[in-house]
Amino acid sequence: MTEGDRLLATTRDVPPGTPRTMPGQSPAIAPVMTTTLPPLDIAAIRKDFALLSRVLRGKPVIYLDSAVSGQMPLQVIERMVKYERDEHTNVHRGVSTLSQEATDFYEAAREKVRRFIGAGSIREIVWTRGTTESINLVAQTFGRMVVKEGDEILLSAMEHHANIVPWQMLAQEKGATIKVIPMTDTGELILASLDELITDRTKIVGVVHISNVLGTVNPVKEIIAMAHAKGVPVLVDGAQAVPHLQVDVKDLDADFYAFSGHKLSGPTGIGVLYGKLAHLEAMPPWHGGGSMIRSVTWEKTTYLPAPGKFEAGTPPIAAAIGLGAAIDYVSALGIDRIAAHEHDLLLYATERLSRIPGLRILGSAKEKASVISFVVEGIHPHDMGSLLDGEGIVVRAGHHCAQPIMTRLKVPATTRASFAYFNTREEVDFLVSAVEKAIELFK
Predict the structure, then answer these.
(1) pLDDT digits (tens, 9 = 90+) for 233-292
(2) Residues 256 and 360 in one domain
(3) Could you confirm whether 218 is annotated as catalytic?
(4) Which one of the listed residues 401, 404, 411, 436 is annotated catalytic?
(5) pTM for the whole thing?
């Protein structure tokens, strides 16, 4: 454990010397499973999700909307309930046994995140409310430091609003310009354009790892290398990537990487910002208050080192512990096995839906995650979504907080089915039958 990690592990508002258990010593951290494990036991997994046995209007729920929010297994819910029922108190405050235990559980969850994404230190893991807050934090601290009038911010054509709006706000404030990496009709970024787009005025590149609309898995490692070759840092929106593939932030060499707990079978209200320690140390605090300070006088306040200086006030303790439990759960299943199962569902659903006359799937990149957005001739996506809901099938219909993609593809909205490790081929068959039924109804 580094000296910085030891500093973080110490209760922030407790006098030095208080006995502590280091987060890294917590017995609750599950080992990462290997690729030699057998295929997923989907029937057993489904028993961990109560929602999958729910009946709506006489139809069993088929949840095909994990891209908007993943379902929490019972193990995650029970771990959060245990904290709220048996362990509830604040962290980094007081000398009580409960406070020390809560702090250990809370910081152990941070360590689980560090291991899960391959960060070098828990000091590089900042708790936020989600991907949106993580990106806003970077824009309003790091961005304000480096972006000046006349500078440029480079984003991709397939960004979620969360990785557009904060940069637009910063650009307006600073007098900077937003530039866009174009994409093909198949939904792949045109990397050849980067040579011209990245200039000496480019101060940061923001790119989504996996598109929430198209399912495209972007070559972020290559994009990062191209940006770094010109001295430009890169922020990656990993909200859709972390649940579906193994992420190693050190291998990617990302400057910043953001994701949300609720996409990863965890609770809402918790997110993660990974940042290279040199960046986090140079960045000023974003919010001020308790828990993020070393000392306060009327004349001056001094701050904790990262990540503490970014975590003002009482944090989402139960949610952080819940996210740690979610990481335990998916790690035990094996990200490699999750990816293989979801890829099988993607191929099967793509093949079956493609047979339906009048249905068009948007996005056919060579590298795709388990997301299918489609439109049906003569049926608005909102109508399709409502009709599928009547059959107990939960999908997303709309612009998916990615209106620039809709404009690029010349559609007002899409219907989106997104698959998780608990979904089955039989559920895909139900989806196909329901779409065909909807088409017949409109005829």
Answers:
(1) 999 999 999 999 999 999 999 999 999 999 999 999 999 999 999 999 999 999 999 889
(2) no
(3) no
(4) 401
(5) 0.91
